[in-house]
Automatic annotation (TrEMBL):
Pfam family, one: PepSY_like
Segment forming the signal sequence: 1-23
Putative beta-lactamase-inhibitor-like PepSY-like domain ranges (all copies): 62-149
Name of the featured protein: Ribosome biogenesis protein
Species in which this protein is naturally found: Bacteroides intestinalis
Family annotation (InterPro entries): PepSY-like
PROSITE patterns assigned: PROKAR_LIPOPROTEIN (PS51257)
UniProt keyword list: Signal
Length: 166
């Protein structure tokens, strides 16, 4: 009986030490000061955006939110100018021309990881297919008609897609 009690007491102490070492996510709140003009620009551009969480990437303010059932990142500059919207999509949402181009391209046998579409104020929409093979990871940027516009090696790097410099 003493052995069971001792083992139970030791296990409870270990659990208490383990859980007390865990951080509370609420303590990790990295609140940033988003200018009201940026908040209003988001509301005006995307009034249906939900679950909005802000982060700052360099000089940019990024609203991580949901748009039309898609996880999206909406980028603004400090002057509240909308620069880009990146939305995660499924393979079935990728236009057939892009699917065909990818399927006949150099990376067709790589493992497909993620898919995005990118909207810009002045540039045409782009589609991004992230692919992996072994420890290599690439982002393939396609035009809506299936033209491969750019290939970016993001192996071991930050794979954030930034707005183009104007």
């Amino acid at each position: 009986m003493k052995t069971r009690f001792l083992m139970l007491a030791v296990m409870m102490c270990m659990a208490a030490v383990t859980f007390s070492a865990c951080s509370d996510d609420d303590d990790d709140d990295k609140s940033i000061n988003v200018p009201e003009s940026v908040v209003q620009a988001l509301k005006q551009k995307y009034p249906s955006a939900t679950g909005i969480e802000w982060e700052q990437k360099g000089a940019y303010f990024v609203a991580d939110c949901w748009l039309d059932g898609k996880e999206s990142n909406i980028w603004f500059d400090p002057n509240a100018n909308w620069l880009m919207t990146e939305s995660e999509i499924f393979w079935n949402d990728v236009p057939e021309a892009v699917q065909t181009a990818f399927g006949s391209g150099e990376y067709a046998n790589w493992v497909q990881d993620d898919y995005y579409f990118l909207l810009y104020p002045l540039q045409p929409m782009q589609y991004v297919i992230e692919v992996k093979q072994g420890n290599q990871k690439y982002q393939l940027f396609y035009s809506e008609d299936g033209g491969l516009m750019n290939t970016v090696n993001v192996t071991g790097k930050d794979d954030t897609i930034y707005p183009p410099k104007v």
